[in-house]
Amino acid sequence: MALFVILHSLAALLSLLAQCWAFDLGQSTRCVAIPHQMSVCQDVGYSEMRLPNFLGHSSLEGEVVPRSEDWRPLLQTGCHPQAKAFLCSLIAPVCLDTFIQPCRSLCVAVRTSCAPVLACQGHAWPEALDCDRFPAHDDMCLNSLPKPTRSYLLKDLPQPACQDCPAVNEFPSLKVLLDSFCLSDFVIRAKLSRRRVLSGEPEFEVEDRVEFILQGPLLPYDTNSLLQQWLLINLRCAQTLVRPGRAQLYLIAGTVQSKGTVALKHLFPWHKKDVNIAVATRKWKHHKC
């Protein structure tokens, strides 16, 4: 239910953006402090914002703060390192002597990375954020930063991506389990939960440390975060896979695609009475595919 509320709220926001874009740069504006409850735009490098903002919102409590929270599910996916700067430059524009809009190049960079995530969550990139509406000259707008230099190791880390929901197999046979292991690049044991918390917080969580049955290309320090990001990107799929209530232990088998993206292929709920999963994990060390 909480996920439905988030997605419904985001859909309403995207619809409203198209109606609110007509912002007159010549209209009277005022500077206000960015409120603490506007958490998505904290730590952006400045403390005061201009109202109305570039989305036409003039009321902090009635429009700006609640609608800023609708972007949290997208920002939490980490779809682009400057997605927060881009969105906050529109939601909470910096209060200077001149209006500073995001550059077209920044919009394009964020859209390229984040539009597929929005699509995975059931939404198109909003027309109100059409990149052609932003200034093309980088000297009078918020520019994109150069891509950080990454080490060879970081560059090749497997990454989560949008995908079709993996199959869920309740009480699989021993043969099905071992065959699945043989066709997978990794097999992990993870406890997943659907959290009952305030709106705007992550609904899904990876509890405890992920354990490896077959490690493959995954790295121990990165796998918890990788699985958490996968759940955030594939929100609609996560709603189907992870049951509400107590945390559920799963055996998860998957592959790493040629582009370095992780694809989960099979989820096996690990029930206490399921002997086959326990036997399969023990036999796997000596099993020949």
Can you give me a brief rundown of this structure?
The chain is of the alpha/beta class.
List keywords for this structure.
two-stranded antiparallel ribbon; signal; Frizzled_dom_sf; alpha/beta; differentiation; Netrin_domain; 36% helix; OB fold (Dihydrolipoamide Acetyltransferase, E2P)
Task: Describe it.
This protein folds into 2 domains: 2-140, Frizzled cysteine-rich domain (Orthogonal Bundle), CATH 1.10.2000.10; 152-286, OB fold (Dihydrolipoamide Acetyltransferase, E2P). Helix 7 (174-182) crosses helix 10. Strands 3, 4, 5, 6, 7 and 8 form a 6-stranded mixed β-sheet that branches. A two-stranded antiparallel ribbon has the order 1-2. The protein contains 10 helices and 8 strands. It is of the alpha/beta class. The longest helix is centred in the first third of the chain and has 19 residues, at 2-20. Residues 1-23 and 148-153 have low confidence and may be disordered.
